[in-house]
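User: Okay, second chain of the day. Same drill as before: sequence in, structure tokens out.
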Amino acid sequence: MANPPVLLNQSPVLDATEVGIDTNISFSLTDDVQVVLSTVRVYVSAFLVFDGTSFQTGWGGSSYAGNGGNGWDFTLRHTAYFELGNTVSVRVVAQDNLGNSVDESWAFHIAPLYKKAVLQIKAVAHDVLRAYFPEPVVTSQALTLVDNYLITTLTSGATDVTVTGVRTLDPEAGLASFVDVYISPVALDALYRLEVRNQRNVRGSILYNGELLGMAAHFLGRSTKADAMRGTFARLYSTRGVESTLLQIIVALALEDERLGGQGDLSPIPIPVPPPTTFGTSTYGTDTYGG
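Assistant: Same drill. Structure tokens below.
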């Protein structure tokens, strides 16, 4: 007696996590004799997608083809994206021409709406920050929108700093690993926080640090080797702002010197989160206060 049809090559695989919102679903049916196409039923999250003859509305980009295993290869392509954070189930029902049947299901998980991420910053000049993303982000309009970059002054009395422009350099395949953030003058040795909002990875998740709306990191106001280099040219050429090609060259030279073992003043400085108030420290509630 022939065995029932077999379900193979499921993609995404069982219990896959962080699946992209535009991912296709694929699988194969094979059999000892022949899977009868008119008996195939495919359900996605309980909705009938294929009824044995055609794909339903919303799944018109899908396809199937016969394979060498007496069965069929299916690719399911939805005309809309899956919702971030959802679990998607797929059920396949079929029979062969001897009446043997298969009824199997599997599920996978779409990427979450938010993904925790840690930003890294190099102060490449006193008015230029290079912000490195923990993973590539999509180069949408949001990438260079100034409103998505917020600087908070953490040192009392220090000059407030604003973002004046954002530039990305030669993104590959619509992705960017870092941006240069141009800022107004800083107070030397003052502590600031840069928060980058509304940036999505290739899965569609918004990257954030778990507490604020976006990725965030601290930086100190300081002068760097790039500032020393640009001082030579400032009398003759513009070395300010996003449009200065010369500034980009100076920054590139400073970073290359860093890579080859220069002074190391462009490396990110480990900056702790500002300490809490002293109220509630170990001295409070001790024998001194009758605790």
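The first strand starts at residue 6 and ends at 11.

User: Thanks, on to the next one.
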